Every structure is written in C-alpha cells, then in structure tokens.
Amino acid sequence: MWGEAGIQTDATIRADTIARLHRGSKGRQGLMVQAKKIALFVIVVFVLYTIITSPARAADLVQIGFEGVSSAARGVGDFMSELVN
C-alpha cells in the first residue's frame, strides 16, 4: 500500500477512489429508496382521499379494473386453448 519512502502507490490510490465511488452509489440508492417511499405514500393518500370523497366513483373504477383484468385473463385463456388445438 505505502511504498518504500512512505509514498502512496497507485494501487492504494485506485482502491481509495473505488471505495469513495462505491460509497457514493450507496448514497444515490438510498435516495432512490426514499423517493420510492414518498411516491408510494402520495399514491396511498390519493387513493384514500378519492375513496373517502367519492365512494361511488371509486367503486365504479374498481369494477372497471376488475372487468379489465377478467377480460385479459379470458383472452389469455382463449389464446392458450387455440395453441393447444
């Protein structure tokens, strides 16, 4: 790590640089995790607000969503049946 006259070698300098870069990437990942938590919190609050302020409209939206999922599943089932035949 340190050379003969107490001089830092290239390998030590590279290792220090890599360590600093690695710590920086963890900081960015931590920031992204916090951003995801905040975004999820905002979405949950928005959904709860929508349900509380207009429950009939929220029920209609849920029904439309379930119909869409059901239709997609039916389409996949039909596709698989046609593949088998």
SSE string, helices as H and strands as E: HH
Shape: flat
Gyration radius from CA atoms, angstroms: 28 Å
Average pLDDT figure: 81
Structure classification: mainly alpha
Overall description:
With 85 residues, the chain is mainly α. It has two domains: 1-53; 55-85. Helices cover 87% and strands 0% of the residues. It has two helices and no strands. The longest helix has 44 residues, at 10-53. The mean pLDDT is 81.
Describe this protein with a few key phrases:
mainly alpha; 2 helices; flat
Structure at a glance:
With 85 residues, the chain is mostly helical.
List the helices and strands and how they pair.
Blueprint: H1 10-53, H2 55-84
